[in-house]
Write a structure and sequence with these properties.
The structure holds three protein chains of three kinds. By secondary structure, chain A is mainly alpha-helical. Chain A is 71% helix and 1% strand. Chain A has a two-stranded antiparallel sheet with strand order 1-2. Chain C is 42% helix and 15% strand. In chain C, strands 1, 2, 3, 4, 5, 6, 7, 8, 9, 10 and 11 form an eleven-stranded mixed β-sheet that branches. The chains are: A mainly alpha, B mainly alpha, C alpha/beta.
């Protein structure tokens, strides 16, 4: 770095930062997103509001908004508000909410311990925490189907611990298995951002709390927890968003029980298994809109918090 | 089980939870690896151990089945290219968006966040439709998949790097400028080295995402020659295939762990302060909170 | 020809969308945007095979890799296999040219008329198919493709109930027929129906004695949906096509399944120490028995049509088909491989003789036929409701 700083001075006066200079940096990326993301989403709309080739049943997109046909979207909305798709939506939200709760209950103590208490094994623990990322998600889910069989290891362990007398068929299509599966699959995504927030909390603040006579529990609830809220929120967001699009975890863990179907299954089925791609595309749009509202809420809350903090 | 009762007691309780969690998270990995050593065709029960699905089987083993090598090479090639393109593109975008003020910039900022809140299935569907209906000029599955992966991971890079930019602040760059560096020099010689941990984290996240992605890859594959490992695993899970896919996943695991370990060591040597790879990645992900 | 027109369309759309002048352009082209009516050419006689690679589009694990290796060795070419998971996905990808393939390996009979009309498959030149006479007589001139002009049969199978003979009495299954699924309250969570809207709904209809398997009567479909939905609470039903492994491994006791799944179960999925006698298969009597077959075809405008023809012919060879059967468990549609032959050779145990459809089964069989857009939409809507668990 010394070499850097001893570079011969070339410009005497410091010019004002020019916006165009920085825009040039951002432009390639922005252009990329417009070309491949914005246009792609438009293609989904063109398909959702388009028609279907009568012979091959492939989508015939309506690129011109003046020719948009809202039949499929209207049918989808009817089925969501008071129809069968509504049940699927509510179930999906329920699964995601329960899984998020599971992620918090498991992820928070783990992140807290690794960030603030594990001085000796922290490096090792961090490596172990990211390890599951390096073997395919699908492979790990398949392994669960093996562990959860009637004669599988989970029943053996539960019997060994005397938590259960009769072996249970975990894969019989129960919601709890799917929720456990989702927690398992997504909790690593939850732990890491939370970990880094907890790790950055200034230890002196916590010491101050203790010095002022608060108990460990009081310090935790009054100091540590509030300070970790931004990390908790961010972790929650990056955990639940992919869950909403998940359609493989439940398929693997219940061999396709109608009792555990999520919205992603319906999307996949309509796009790959039926002659109505426009219905699938319409469902995609509804899901996007729903997540948008959720995100907008998150942004409003975080911005408000930031303003409060700055004040 | 109140973990806050006593100072030492609480740490012990938390430690137990953590180690049980680690066991729980790794158990299925061990099972998947164990099944790759099955001697029979079953992918769901343990059988006598053998190397049949690695090289023993003259047709379906990883060593002999061309489609499995191809899948592995495709996956690694795709992830490497994605990393090489998405990272610089994203770093530049993060630096630009961090400084650039104005209406267009606000819109670009918003646009950048949208892919993050978009589930993979939406990406898969949207890109599949756009490539078959509009960008028909993009010929091969590999280039389509590459474009898909870059589009999906670009925003991760931006968010991670921006988190770090905020933490750094402007003072180092200003100091460099005061000492006479040009703007580009200040970025190249001061800012980029300071961003190294975030860039490293981005590379890891991009690589991991690309290697594990199957929704986008499978929507955009144009033939066996462009199937990736997760696509193989997914079709295998739904068809009647053999533990060879477990063997494939195990080989991939070894490969990626080696790569990560090497990268981590290199990183450590380059920047001793930044800590280990995992901490870097975690710190980067935390950018999402900022 | 086709390609260039599509490219032109796509480019003009791109341009039009960008410039905001797409409307008149699109309207001008809109008239013929449907792909119907395209016909593809037959290849000439006696051409030399291309250098390859031969690109096959198929379900996963639906052809023996040994057989593929033999073909590669015999013709000195590489073979690449791309997989799909549903018929619709396959047709969509082929029709939109998202996939470039030479051989469409397993076409469902209900899609073939559309594949022909849409120019997705090309007419076959029979002079290359010297093994065609090996095909079952009843499938040489099938209802879906008169004179086998565009397709040759690959494998065939019937739809019935696969079950664990050690947990439920075969005589009881024989007596109850399709009611076996509704009576299986002792086996909650161990009962499955096929993940296929028509198969499953037809099954519910047949249980009520309705054998018009191609009905589009909304009332009949609604009743079948209501009956299927009962299974969710009665037996905690699963929806999948995994009977081939779930029955031998014991996680499923009663499955609405295809005959070939049991042969597959026997061949590769019985855990050590489990005897083949635990497997059972029931199917309705001839005349009420739904039999299906998959067919192979050559993709229209593909790069290696001669090689593709040679491959089709290769697969119709008796010895090749037998080797293929030993791996996939789905019975090749060839006369030589009848029940006595495959049982004698040990591919199928005697207790699963019912898995091989007899001549009478085939001649009297019920077939799923194309229902048109609206007919299919009715089944799809009912199916979506059923799987949503609402």
């Amino acid at each position: 770095m010394t070499a850097t700083l001893s570079a011969p001075p070339t410009v005497a006066a410091k010019p004002r930062p020019k916006s165009r200079f920085w825009a040039m940096f951002a432009m390639p990326g922005v252009g990329w997103l417009v070309a491949f993301f914005v246009v792609s989403v438009y293609a989904v709309m063109a398909v959702a509001f388009g028609t279907v080739d009568p012979v091959l049943r492939t989508a015939v997109p309506a690129w011109n908004p003046l020719q948009w046909d809202f039949t499929a979207m209207r049918a989808v909305l009817d089925r969501i508000f008071g129809g069968d798709l509504g049940t699927v939506f509510i179930r999906t939200v329920g699964f995601v909410a329960a899984s998020l709760a599971g992620c918090i209950l498991i992820g928070y103590p783990v992140a807290y311990f690794v960030a603030r208490k594990a001085s000796k094994h922290r490096g090792l623990l961090l490596i172990l925490l990211v390890l599951p990322f390096w073997i395919s998600y699908l492979m790990r889910m398949l392994a669960w189907t093996n562990l959860l069989q009637v004669d599988g290891m989970v029943n053996d362990i539960l019997r060994f611990l005397h938590l259960q007398s009769e072996p249970r068929n975990w894969l019989d299509g129960s919601a709890s298995t799917v929720i456990w599966g989702l927690v398992y699959g997504y909790v690593p995504f939850f732990i890491l951002p939370l970990y880094s927030t907890l790790e950055r909390i200034d230890g002196r603040l916590i010491e101050a709390g203790r010095d002022l006579g608060a108990s460990a529990a009081q310090t935790f609830f009054r100091v540590t927890l509030p300070l970790s809220v931004p990390g908790l929120m961010a972790a929650s967001v990056i955990t639940i968003l992919p869950m909403f699009g998940d359609y493989y975890t439940n398929t693997y863990l219940t061999s396709g029980s109608p009792k555990t179907e999520m919205i992603g299954n319906q999307i996949e089925n309509y796009l790959l298994g039926t002659s109505q791609p426009q219905t699938g595309a319409a469902l995609v749009l509804v899901l996007m809109a729903f997540l948008f509202v959720l995100m907008a809420y998150y942004l409003v809350v975080t911005i408000r918090q930031q303003r409060m903090a700055e004040r | 089980m109140n973990p806050f009762r006593r100072k030492h007691g609480s740490a012990r309780g938390l430690a137990m939870i953590t180690w049980v969690y680690v066991l729980w998270s790794l158990l299925p990995v061990l099972v998947a690896v164990r099944i790759s050593f099955n001697s029979g065709k079953s992918r769901s029960s343990f059988q006598a151990p053998s190397f049949r699905w690695y090289w023993g089987d003259p047709v379906s083993s990883v060593w002999h089945d061309d489609s499995l090598h191809t899948a592995m090479l495709n996956t690694l090639q795709l992830a490497a290219l994605c990393m090489l393109i998405a990272t610089p593109l994203g770093v530049a975008m993060a630096i630009g968006l961090h400084r650039w003020r104005g209406k267009v910039s606000n819109a670009a900022n918003g646009l950048m966040l949208v892919p993050i809140v978009t589930p993979e299935i939406v990406f898969g569907v949207a890109l599949f439709l756009v490539f078959t209906q509009m960008y028909t000029g993009v010929p091969s599955g590999m280039s389509r998949q590459l474009i898909g992966h870059i589009t999906f991971t670009l925003s991760f890079v931006v968010v991670i790097v921006r988190g770090r930019l905020q933490a750094i602040g402007a003072q180092y760059e200003e100091a460099a400028r005061d000492l006479g560096a040009t703007r580009l020099q200040a970025i190249r010689l001061v800012l980029l080295p300071l961003l190294a941990p975030a860039i490293f984290a981005s590379v890891m996240v991009v690589f991991a995402t690309s290697v594990d992605d199957f929704v986008i890859s499978s929507f955009l594959t144009t033939g066996a020659s462009t199937d990736t490992v997760p696509v193989k695993i997914y079709s295998a899970a739904r068809g009647s295939s053999t533990p060879a896919v477990n063997a494939l996943a195990t080989v991939m695991l070894v490969f990626t762990l080696l790569a990560v370990a090497l990268a981590g060591l290199a990183m450590k040597r380059m920047n001793k302060k930044s800590g280990d790879a995992a901490a870097g990645a975690a710190g980067g992900l935390a950018g999402l909170s900022g | 020809m086709t390609t260039s027109r599509r490219d032109f369309l796509a480019r003009s759309v791109q341009l039009g969308a960008l410039l905001g002048v797409g409307v008149p352009l699109l309207q001008a082209c809109g008239g013929d945007s449907s792909s119907g009516g395209q016909k593809t050419q037959t290849i000439a006689d006696g051409l030399k095979p291309e250098k390859g690679p031969l690109r096959i589009f198929n379900y996963d694990s639906y052809v023996n890799p040994d057989v593929i290796a033999d073909f590669e060795a015999q013709y000195g070419v590489k073979v690449e296999i791309t997989t799909f998971t549903t018929d619709t996905e396959a047709v969509t990808k082929l029709a939109s040219k998202a996939i470039q393939a030479d051989v469409y390996h397993s076409m469902a009979s209900t899609t073939i008329d559309r594949l022909i009309a849409g120019g997705v498959i090309q007419p076959l030149n029979k002079t290359y198919l010297t093994n065609f006479p090996n095909v079952l007589e009843s499938l040489q001139d099938p209802w879906y493709d008169k004179g086998s002009a565009y397709s040759v049969p690959y494998v065939y199978f019937g739809t019935g109930i696969g079950y664990r003979a050690d947990r439920i009495d075969p005589a009881q299954v024989e007596k109850d027929g399709w009611n076996t699924l509704w009576n299986a309250t002792d086996f909650k969570g161990q009962v499955s129906v096929l993940d296929d809207e028509r198969e499953a709904l037809i099954m519910a209809m047949m249980r009520k004695g309705l054998f018009d398997v191609n009905t589009t009567d909304q009332k009949v479909i609604d009743q079948a949906l209501a009956d299927l939905t009962e299974l969710i609470d009665l037996v905690n039903v699963k929806v999948n096509i995994d009977g081939y492994k779930n029955i031998p491994e014991g996680t499923t006791t009663i499955a609405h399944t295809w005959s070939a799944d049991l042969i597959n179960a026997y061949a590769g999925y019985l855990p050590e120490g489990t005897d083949a006698s635990v497997l059972g298969f029931w199917h309705p009597p001839a005349g009420e028995y739904l039999v299906s077959n998959d067919s192979m075809g050559v993709v229209g405008g593909c790069e290696h049509p001669v090689l593709a023809h040679l491959y089709l012919n290769f697969m119709l060879d008796n010895a090749v088909a037998e080797k293929n059967f030993s791996y996939v468990g789905y019975l090749p549609a060839l006369t030589a491989l009848d029940a006595d032959y495959v049982i004698g050779k040990g591919y199928v145990p005697e207790n699963l003789r019912a898995c091989v459809p007899t001549k009478e089964d085939i001649t009297k069989a019920l077939f799923e036929k194309p229902l048109g857009v609206e007919g299919d939409a009715k089944y799809e809507a009912a199916w979506s409701k059923f799987t949503s668990g609402a």
